[in-house]
Amino acid sequence: MNQQQIELLLNNPLLQDAELIETHISWLLLTSGNVYKMKKDVLFSFLDFSTLAKRKFYCERELMLNRRLAPDLYEDVVAINATEGGLEFGAYQFDSIDFAIKMKRVAHNWEMTRMLKDERVQPEHMDSIADKLSAFHQDSIPDKALFNPIKALDDFSDIANYSEELTRHIGTSKMDEIMDSLKVARSFLRRHHQRFHYRRILGFTVDGHGDLHAGNIFLENDKPIIFDCIEFNDDFRKVDVLDEVAFLCVDLEAFGRPDLAQRFATSYQAGNRTMVTKEDERLFNFYKCYRANVRLKVTAIKIDNLPIEAHADTLLDQLNRHYELYHKYVEILKEYDQETSN
After folding, report:
1. CA-CA distance, 256 to 280, in Å (whole number)?
2. Average pLDDT, stretch 316-341?
3. Domains in the chain with CATH codes
């Protein structure tokens, strides 16, 4: 989908009252009862939606994967078809111009990010999310493939591909610190690769969600709905459960709620004991560092790929908060390195 096609959809009399939300990779059209999510024609180092066939494939994959955690939210994949003078959602045709995931709409009031800002998220919500995630992970088939430290470092180091964007928004000195931190990650992976691998043998790597932050959770009537998992890269979704838990913890800390992050981690551990050694605690901090790294990269991409009115200063504030967290986690990794060396 492109901007011109979105405008044609909005000209449809049946959709003129719809609300449009734009992200760096999608458009979401919100009607009174449904949400239609359309993928942009974009290509990044980690994602490729650049052809119609790929967008159709990933729409279908997104539907299938997200029905694991939110079966009532994800309804169907629909086509976008040309009409006389416009576009409409409908059944697939040989000349359909694009595709959308059709979902049930949940009121904005239940968005976890909004509830965090309004201070409506309670410790008990963390228990509910942890219980749901723990059960989901235990039902998942473990991935016991060999741990690949080179790939892990490549994923961590992908942030270097966005040095120009990050430097523009956080400055040269902070970007230099980020580049230096890649050496710290390399050292950590070298020292702990055996434990990373052994955790895979133990079954702690699952086909999970892969993008577990507050923006992908509703707390409708205090019951969590976890949605929008990673569909475009299986490796990003097949993660150690500590990695999955770490992502939401980082997000909660970025919202200034380390208490909720600790409650969530503790509650998850109570239902699914996966942090079993002192070394696992160090791996957990590494995963937090990696997730803050990812948030830095993605936020920089959003700033450069969204119109300024779509984010104003909000994303810049997020970028700086995630940088501060990233810096904190890197310093802890350095302390681990010093302890191991002594």
Report:
1. 25
2. 91
3. 3-105 (3.30.200), 112-341 (3.90.1200.10)
